[in-house]
Amino acid sequence: MSDFRTLSADYSVAPQISIEDVAEAKAAGFAMLVNNRPDGEEPEAPQGEDIAHAAAAEGLAYAAIPIGHAGFSHAQIDALDKLLGDATGPILAYCRSGTRSTHLWALTRARRGDDVGGIVDAAANAGYDLSPLRPMLDALSGEK
Questions:
Q1: How far is CA 102 from CA 43, 44, 111, 117, 142, in A?
Q2: What are phi and psi of 46, to 5 degrees?
């Protein structure tokens, strides 16, 4: 059963999705899947190629922006920012728990100049605590 959590009208997150969840994502109206999990992180989980093939079969776009133990980089924020700008519909991003996907979205939105309080509230409403990221979100929001 899917666990899709809405952060905004155009972006939701989920813990690791299954092949079956791809069809549910399509039925829920998502246009793209974004994989934030490095291949091999959990050998038993569907790997990126598996999800990419299932997405293609459903007519969904697929992108990978892996986030490993090294954390977040401007390149990853840039990649999500581009996907958000080019998206033709809502995006579903996933990782092991949805936390990395939420953090990447929050960092990207803060850098775009969105209200940091609103970003934190949206994440909290979806079950994710951004308080450890708050100083970074505030700093990024001041870049623009």
A1: 23, 23, 14, 15, 20
A2: -60, 135
Return the amino acid letter for 131.
Answer: S
Let me know if 23 is exposed, middle or buried by CB neighbors in 10 A (0-12, 13-18, 19+).
middle
Domains and CATH numbers, the chain: 5-141 (3.90.190.10)
CA distances from 14 to 25, 64, 98, 127, 143 (A): 10, 14, 5, 11, 29
Tens of pLDDT, residue by residue over 46-104, are: 999 999 999 999 999 999 999 998 889 999 999 999 999 999 999 999 999 999 999 99
